Amino acid sequence: MKLTDTGIRAAKPKAKPYKLPREDGLFLLINPSGSKWWRLAYSFDGKEKLLSLGVYPEVSLADARRRRDEARKLLAAGVDPSGHRKAEKLAGAERAANSFEVIAREWFGKFSTRWAPSHSSKTIGRLERDVFPWLGDRAVASVTAPELLTVLRRVEARGALETAHRILQVSGQIFRYAIATGRAERDPSQDLRGALAPWKPEHYPSITEPKAIGGLLRAIDGFSGTFPVACALKLAPMLFVRPGELRQMEWAEVDLDSAEWSIPAGKMKTREPHLVPLPTQAIAILRELQPFSGRGQFVFPGVRSPRKPMSDAALNAALRRLGYPKEVMTLHGFRATARTLLDETLGFRPDFIEHQLAHAVRDPNGRAYNRTSHLPERRKMMQAWADYLDTLTAPAAVLPLRAA
Hints:
Shape: elongated
CATH superfamily of the largest domain: Intergrase catalytic core
Family: Belongs to the 'phage' integrase family.
InterPro entries: DNA_brk_join_enz, Integrase-like_cat_sf, Integrase_catalytic, Integrase_DNA-bd_sf, Integrase_DNA_bind_dom, Integrase_recombinase_N, Phage_int_M, Phage_Integrase
Pfam family, one: Arm-DNA-bind_3
Number of helices: 16
Keywords: DNA integration, DNA recombination, DNA-binding
GO molecular function: DNA binding
Protein backbone atom coordinates (compact mmCIF):
# COMPACT_ATOMS: atom_id res chain seq x y z
CA MET A 1 0.00 0.00 0.00
CA LYS A 2 1.29 3.47 -0.88
CA LEU A 3 1.97 6.08 1.78
CA THR A 4 0.81 9.60 0.99
CA ASP A 5 1.59 13.01 2.46
CA THR A 6 -2.13 13.62 2.88
CA GLY A 7 -2.62 10.39 4.83
CA ILE A 8 0.44 11.09 7.00
CA ARG A 9 -0.70 14.60 7.88
CA ALA A 10 -4.20 13.36 8.67
CA ALA A 11 -2.98 10.59 11.01
CA LYS A 12 -3.86 11.44 14.60
CA PRO A 13 -2.32 9.97 17.77
CA LYS A 14 -4.21 7.26 19.64
CA ALA A 15 -4.04 5.78 23.11
CA LYS A 16 -1.48 3.26 21.91
CA PRO A 17 1.25 3.44 19.24
CA TYR A 18 0.14 2.31 15.78
CA LYS A 19 1.60 2.04 12.28
CA LEU A 20 0.53 3.32 8.96
CA PRO A 21 0.63 0.52 6.34
CA ARG A 22 4.01 -0.63 5.04
CA GLU A 23 5.41 0.38 1.68
CA ASP A 24 8.18 -2.09 0.74
CA GLY A 25 9.12 -2.39 4.41
CA LEU A 26 8.81 1.37 5.11
CA PHE A 27 6.18 2.45 7.64
CA LEU A 28 5.40 5.34 9.94
CA LEU A 29 5.05 4.71 13.69
CA ILE A 30 2.67 7.18 15.36
CA ASN A 31 3.06 7.50 19.14
CA PRO A 32 0.47 8.69 21.69
CA SER A 33 2.57 11.85 22.13
CA GLY A 34 1.95 12.71 18.48
CA SER A 35 5.54 12.05 17.30
CA LYS A 36 5.81 10.22 13.97
CA TRP A 37 8.87 8.00 13.39
CA TRP A 38 9.97 6.43 10.12
CA ARG A 39 10.93 2.77 10.41
CA LEU A 40 12.19 0.20 7.94
CA ALA A 41 11.41 -3.44 8.61
CA TYR A 42 13.82 -5.85 6.96
CA SER A 43 15.31 -9.30 7.31
CA PHE A 44 19.05 -9.96 7.53
CA ASP A 45 20.82 -13.23 8.19
CA GLY A 46 17.49 -14.86 9.05
CA LYS A 47 16.57 -12.23 11.65
CA GLU A 48 13.83 -9.58 11.57
CA LYS A 49 15.21 -6.10 12.22
CA LEU A 50 14.09 -2.47 12.37
CA LEU A 51 16.04 0.58 11.19
CA SER A 52 15.11 4.11 12.25
CA LEU A 53 15.04 6.57 9.33
CA GLY A 54 14.15 9.77 11.16
CA VAL A 55 11.17 11.79 12.34
CA TYR A 56 8.37 13.25 10.25
CA PRO A 57 8.09 16.08 9.12
CA GLU A 58 11.86 16.77 9.49
CA VAL A 59 12.33 13.74 7.25
CA SER A 60 9.75 13.99 4.47
CA LEU A 61 8.10 11.05 2.74
CA ALA A 62 10.43 11.49 -0.24
CA ASP A 63 13.49 11.52 2.05
CA ALA A 64 12.26 8.43 3.88
CA ARG A 65 11.81 6.58 0.59
CA ARG A 66 15.33 7.59 -0.49
CA ARG A 67 16.81 6.32 2.79
CA ARG A 68 14.83 3.08 2.42
CA ASP A 69 16.17 2.55 -1.10
CA GLU A 70 19.75 3.16 0.09
CA ALA A 71 19.24 0.56 2.82
CA ARG A 72 17.82 -1.94 0.32
CA LYS A 73 20.91 -1.48 -1.89
CA LEU A 74 23.08 -2.38 1.09
CA LEU A 75 20.96 -5.46 1.73
CA ALA A 76 21.31 -6.50 -1.90
CA ALA A 77 25.06 -6.26 -1.46
CA GLY A 78 24.93 -8.44 1.67
CA VAL A 79 25.44 -5.55 4.12
CA ASP A 80 23.34 -5.05 7.24
CA PRO A 81 22.07 -1.42 7.17
CA SER A 82 22.10 -1.20 10.99
CA GLY A 83 25.68 -2.43 11.18
CA HIS A 84 26.67 -0.03 8.40
CA ARG A 85 25.17 2.90 10.31
CA LYS A 86 27.05 1.98 13.49
CA ALA A 87 30.28 1.74 11.51
CA GLU A 88 29.65 5.17 10.00
CA LYS A 89 29.08 6.67 13.45
CA LEU A 90 32.26 5.12 14.78
CA ALA A 91 34.19 6.35 11.75
CA GLY A 92 32.74 9.83 12.20
CA ALA A 93 33.69 9.85 15.88
CA GLU A 94 37.19 8.71 14.99
CA ARG A 95 37.52 11.41 12.35
CA ALA A 96 36.35 14.00 14.87
CA ALA A 97 38.79 12.73 17.49
CA ASN A 98 41.63 12.83 14.95
CA SER A 99 40.73 16.12 13.28
CA PHE A 100 43.47 18.63 12.54
CA GLU A 101 42.17 21.04 15.17
CA VAL A 102 41.95 18.40 17.90
CA ILE A 103 45.49 17.20 17.17
CA ALA A 104 46.78 20.77 16.91
CA ARG A 105 45.30 21.77 20.27
CA GLU A 106 46.66 18.59 21.84
CA TRP A 107 50.13 19.42 20.45
CA PHE A 108 49.83 23.02 21.64
CA GLY A 109 48.78 21.96 25.14
CA LYS A 110 51.73 19.60 25.41
CA PHE A 111 54.50 21.91 24.23
CA SER A 112 53.34 25.47 24.90
CA THR A 113 53.91 25.16 28.65
CA ARG A 114 57.59 25.86 28.00
CA TRP A 115 57.01 28.85 25.71
CA ALA A 116 56.85 32.52 26.52
CA PRO A 117 53.25 33.77 26.83
CA SER A 118 53.65 36.06 23.82
CA HIS A 119 54.86 33.18 21.63
CA SER A 120 52.04 30.95 22.84
CA SER A 121 49.34 33.50 22.09
CA LYS A 122 50.76 34.26 18.64
CA THR A 123 50.98 30.57 17.72
CA ILE A 124 47.46 29.58 18.74
CA GLY A 125 46.10 32.85 17.35
CA ARG A 126 47.51 32.11 13.90
CA LEU A 127 45.98 28.64 13.94
CA GLU A 128 42.58 29.84 15.12
CA ARG A 129 42.45 32.70 12.64
CA ASP A 130 44.08 31.25 9.53
CA VAL A 131 43.96 27.43 9.68
CA PHE A 132 41.15 25.98 11.80
CA PRO A 133 38.28 27.60 9.83
CA TRP A 134 39.38 25.68 6.72
CA LEU A 135 41.23 22.57 7.92
CA GLY A 136 40.11 22.22 11.54
CA ASP A 137 37.40 19.61 10.89
CA ARG A 138 39.48 17.56 8.47
CA ALA A 139 41.00 14.28 9.63
CA VAL A 140 44.66 15.11 10.12
CA ALA A 141 45.70 12.08 8.07
CA SER A 142 43.63 13.22 5.08
CA VAL A 143 44.98 16.77 4.72
CA THR A 144 46.92 17.11 1.46
CA ALA A 145 49.73 19.43 0.46
CA PRO A 146 47.54 21.36 -2.05
CA GLU A 147 44.90 21.94 0.64
CA LEU A 148 47.50 23.27 3.07
CA LEU A 149 48.98 25.43 0.32
CA THR A 150 45.55 26.96 -0.35
CA VAL A 151 45.38 28.03 3.30
CA LEU A 152 48.89 29.49 3.11
CA ARG A 153 48.15 31.32 -0.14
CA ARG A 154 45.20 32.99 1.55
CA VAL A 155 47.56 34.37 4.22
CA GLU A 156 50.22 35.25 1.67
CA ALA A 157 47.69 37.17 -0.44
CA ARG A 158 47.06 39.68 2.33
CA GLY A 159 50.77 40.43 2.53
CA ALA A 160 51.47 38.48 5.74
CA LEU A 161 54.42 36.55 4.35
CA GLU A 162 56.07 35.98 7.72
CA THR A 163 52.80 34.60 9.12
CA ALA A 164 52.47 32.22 6.15
CA HIS A 165 55.96 30.84 6.78
CA ARG A 166 55.29 30.54 10.52
CA ILE A 167 52.06 28.64 9.85
CA LEU A 168 53.86 26.26 7.49
CA GLN A 169 56.49 25.61 10.16
CA VAL A 170 53.92 25.03 12.90
CA SER A 171 51.77 22.83 10.64
CA GLY A 172 54.78 20.61 10.04
CA GLN A 173 55.27 20.24 13.78
CA ILE A 174 51.60 19.30 14.20
CA PHE A 175 51.73 16.70 11.40
CA ARG A 176 54.92 15.19 12.82
CA TYR A 177 53.25 15.01 16.24
CA ALA A 178 50.29 13.23 14.61
CA ILE A 179 52.70 10.75 13.01
CA ALA A 180 54.47 10.12 16.32
CA THR A 181 51.14 9.46 18.07
CA GLY A 182 49.81 7.16 15.35
CA ARG A 183 47.18 9.48 13.86
CA ALA A 184 48.91 10.16 10.51
CA GLU A 185 51.48 8.54 8.27
CA ARG A 186 53.17 11.49 6.59
CA ASP A 187 53.76 15.23 6.80
CA PRO A 188 52.35 17.06 3.73
CA SER A 189 54.09 20.30 4.72
CA GLN A 190 57.36 18.77 3.51
CA ASP A 191 56.00 18.85 -0.03
CA LEU A 192 55.63 22.64 0.14
CA ARG A 193 59.29 23.58 0.44
CA GLY A 194 59.87 26.47 -1.90
CA ALA A 195 56.15 26.95 -2.57
CA LEU A 196 55.96 30.28 -0.69
CA ALA A 197 57.70 33.50 -1.60
CA PRO A 198 61.07 33.73 0.21
CA TRP A 199 61.14 35.40 3.59
CA LYS A 200 63.96 36.02 6.04
CA PRO A 201 63.50 37.03 9.67
CA GLU A 202 64.24 40.70 10.23
CA HIS A 203 66.82 41.43 12.90
CA TYR A 204 66.05 44.08 15.46
CA PRO A 205 67.77 47.36 14.51
CA SER A 206 70.68 48.11 16.82
CA ILE A 207 73.65 50.46 17.15
CA THR A 208 77.05 48.81 17.52
CA GLU A 209 79.44 51.69 16.76
CA PRO A 210 80.89 52.89 20.11
CA LYS A 211 80.71 56.62 19.32
CA ALA A 212 77.07 56.34 18.28
CA ILE A 213 76.30 54.31 21.40
CA GLY A 214 77.82 57.07 23.51
CA GLY A 215 75.52 59.58 21.87
CA LEU A 216 72.50 57.39 22.59
CA LEU A 217 73.51 56.93 26.24
CA ARG A 218 73.90 60.67 26.71
CA ALA A 219 70.48 61.19 25.15
CA ILE A 220 69.06 58.70 27.65
CA ASP A 221 70.73 60.58 30.51
CA GLY A 222 68.94 63.72 29.34
CA PHE A 223 65.52 62.07 29.02
CA SER A 224 62.82 64.32 30.45
CA GLY A 225 59.97 61.82 30.71
CA THR A 226 58.68 60.00 33.79
CA PHE A 227 61.16 58.79 36.38
CA PRO A 228 60.41 55.02 36.01
CA VAL A 229 60.82 55.22 32.21
CA ALA A 230 64.09 57.13 32.63
CA CYS A 231 65.41 54.45 35.01
CA ALA A 232 64.30 51.62 32.71
CA LEU A 233 66.02 53.30 29.76
CA LYS A 234 69.26 53.47 31.74
CA LEU A 235 69.05 49.80 32.75
CA ALA A 236 68.12 48.52 29.26
CA PRO A 237 71.61 48.79 27.70
CA MET A 238 73.33 47.85 30.95
CA LEU A 239 71.45 44.59 31.57
CA PHE A 240 70.47 43.79 27.92
CA VAL A 241 67.54 41.55 28.89
CA ARG A 242 64.47 41.22 26.68
CA PRO A 243 62.12 44.23 26.89
CA GLY A 244 59.30 42.19 28.42
CA GLU A 245 61.60 40.86 31.12
CA LEU A 246 62.77 44.36 32.01
CA ARG A 247 59.39 46.06 32.23
CA GLN A 248 57.94 43.13 34.26
CA MET A 249 60.77 43.20 36.81
CA GLU A 250 59.42 42.75 40.36
CA TRP A 251 61.00 43.87 43.59
CA ALA A 252 60.62 40.35 45.00
CA GLU A 253 62.98 39.10 42.28
CA VAL A 254 65.73 41.61 43.10
CA ASP A 255 68.30 41.14 45.86
CA LEU A 256 70.18 44.43 46.09
CA ASP A 257 72.52 43.18 48.80
CA SER A 258 73.58 40.18 46.74
CA ALA A 259 73.47 42.22 43.52
CA GLU A 260 71.29 39.69 41.72
CA TRP A 261 68.07 39.72 39.76
CA SER A 262 66.49 36.27 39.60
CA ILE A 263 63.92 36.02 36.80
CA PRO A 264 61.49 33.10 37.20
CA ALA A 265 61.01 30.59 34.40
CA GLY A 266 57.46 31.75 33.67
CA LYS A 267 58.73 35.10 32.42
CA MET A 268 61.48 33.73 30.23
CA LYS A 269 61.25 32.88 26.54
CA THR A 270 63.23 29.69 27.20
CA ARG A 271 60.97 28.77 30.13
CA GLU A 272 64.10 28.36 32.28
CA PRO A 273 64.93 30.59 35.28
CA HIS A 274 67.57 33.22 34.58
CA LEU A 275 70.03 35.04 36.83
CA VAL A 276 71.23 38.56 36.03
CA PRO A 277 74.24 39.80 38.04
CA LEU A 278 73.71 43.48 38.81
CA PRO A 279 76.66 45.87 38.40
CA THR A 280 77.11 48.66 40.91
CA GLN A 281 75.61 51.19 38.47
CA ALA A 282 72.41 49.14 38.25
CA ILE A 283 72.23 48.84 42.04
CA ALA A 284 72.48 52.63 42.33
CA ILE A 285 69.62 53.14 39.86
CA LEU A 286 67.40 50.61 41.63
CA ARG A 287 68.09 52.09 45.08
CA GLU A 288 67.13 55.50 43.73
CA LEU A 289 63.94 54.04 42.28
CA GLN A 290 63.03 52.04 45.40
CA PRO A 291 61.34 54.92 47.30
CA PHE A 292 59.15 55.53 44.25
CA SER A 293 57.87 51.97 43.58
CA GLY A 294 59.42 49.79 46.28
CA ARG A 295 56.16 49.35 48.17
CA GLY A 296 54.45 47.87 45.14
CA GLN A 297 54.95 44.71 43.13
CA PHE A 298 56.60 46.06 40.00
CA VAL A 299 59.85 47.98 39.78
CA PHE A 300 58.42 49.81 36.75
CA PRO A 301 54.68 50.19 37.42
CA GLY A 302 52.24 51.26 34.75
CA VAL A 303 51.01 54.82 34.52
CA ARG A 304 47.33 53.89 34.69
CA SER A 305 47.62 51.20 37.33
CA PRO A 306 50.56 50.44 39.65
CA ARG A 307 49.26 46.89 39.86
CA LYS A 308 50.36 46.31 36.29
CA PRO A 309 53.84 46.68 34.78
CA MET A 310 54.85 49.43 32.41
CA SER A 311 53.23 49.07 28.99
CA ASP A 312 54.98 47.32 26.14
CA ALA A 313 55.20 50.47 24.03
CA ALA A 314 56.43 52.87 26.73
CA LEU A 315 60.17 52.31 26.34
CA ASN A 316 60.29 52.16 22.55
CA ALA A 317 58.14 55.29 22.49
CA ALA A 318 60.73 56.93 24.73
CA LEU A 319 63.45 56.06 22.21
CA ARG A 320 61.35 57.70 19.51
CA ARG A 321 61.10 60.85 21.66
CA LEU A 322 64.88 60.87 21.92
CA GLY A 323 65.10 60.94 18.14
CA TYR A 324 65.82 57.25 17.43
CA PRO A 325 63.27 55.84 14.96
CA LYS A 326 62.46 52.14 14.98
CA GLU A 327 64.54 51.64 11.82
CA VAL A 328 67.63 52.77 13.74
CA MET A 329 67.24 51.41 17.29
CA THR A 330 64.81 49.40 19.36
CA LEU A 331 64.91 48.38 22.98
CA HIS A 332 65.54 44.79 21.88
CA GLY A 333 68.50 46.09 19.87
CA PHE A 334 70.49 46.63 23.07
CA ARG A 335 70.95 42.85 23.15
CA ALA A 336 72.74 42.88 19.80
CA THR A 337 74.77 45.89 20.92
CA ALA A 338 75.99 44.05 24.01
CA ARG A 339 76.62 40.78 22.15
CA THR A 340 78.76 42.53 19.54
CA LEU A 341 80.88 44.75 21.77
CA LEU A 342 81.35 42.26 24.62
CA ASP A 343 82.88 39.92 22.06
CA GLU A 344 84.67 42.18 19.61
CA THR A 345 85.74 45.04 21.91
CA LEU A 346 85.93 43.66 25.45
CA GLY A 347 86.95 40.14 24.41
CA PHE A 348 84.66 38.06 26.65
CA ARG A 349 84.03 34.43 25.79
CA PRO A 350 81.03 33.94 23.49
CA ASP A 351 79.52 31.26 25.72
CA PHE A 352 79.53 33.67 28.69
CA ILE A 353 77.76 36.25 26.54
CA GLU A 354 75.22 33.81 25.11
CA HIS A 355 74.40 32.46 28.55
CA GLN A 356 73.88 35.97 29.90
CA LEU A 357 71.59 36.63 26.92
CA ALA A 358 69.53 33.61 28.12
CA HIS A 359 70.13 31.75 24.88
CA ALA A 360 70.26 27.98 24.68
CA VAL A 361 73.91 27.23 25.49
CA ARG A 362 75.41 23.79 26.10
CA ASP A 363 78.80 22.69 27.38
CA PRO A 364 81.17 20.48 25.33
CA ASN A 365 79.40 17.38 26.70
CA GLY A 366 76.00 18.60 25.47
CA ARG A 367 74.68 19.51 28.91
CA ALA A 368 72.64 22.67 29.26
CA TYR A 369 74.14 25.32 31.50
CA ASN A 370 72.01 26.18 34.51
CA ARG A 371 71.24 29.64 35.85
CA THR A 372 74.42 29.80 37.97
CA SER A 373 76.86 28.50 35.34
CA HIS A 374 80.02 30.63 35.19
CA LEU A 375 78.43 33.08 37.60
CA PRO A 376 81.73 34.61 38.87
CA GLU A 377 82.88 35.22 35.30
CA ARG A 378 79.50 36.68 34.35
CA ARG A 379 79.59 39.01 37.35
CA LYS A 380 82.93 40.36 36.15
CA MET A 381 81.58 40.66 32.61
CA MET A 382 78.47 42.59 33.65
CA GLN A 383 80.51 45.02 35.76
CA ALA A 384 83.05 45.48 32.97
CA TRP A 385 80.21 46.15 30.55
CA ALA A 386 78.62 48.79 32.79
CA ASP A 387 82.03 50.44 33.27
CA TYR A 388 82.58 50.43 29.51
CA LEU A 389 79.21 52.10 28.93
CA ASP A 390 80.27 54.80 31.42
CA THR A 391 83.37 55.50 29.33
CA LEU A 392 81.21 55.82 26.21
CA THR A 393 78.87 58.20 28.00
CA ALA A 394 81.66 60.52 29.14
CA PRO A 395 82.13 63.53 26.82
CA ALA A 396 85.83 62.71 26.42
CA ALA A 397 84.85 59.50 24.68
CA VAL A 398 83.61 61.40 21.64
CA LEU A 399 86.31 64.08 21.37
CA PRO A 400 88.62 63.96 18.33
CA LEU A 401 91.85 62.14 19.11
CA ARG A 402 94.07 65.28 18.93
CA ALA A 403 91.71 67.22 21.21
CA ALA A 404 91.72 64.41 23.76
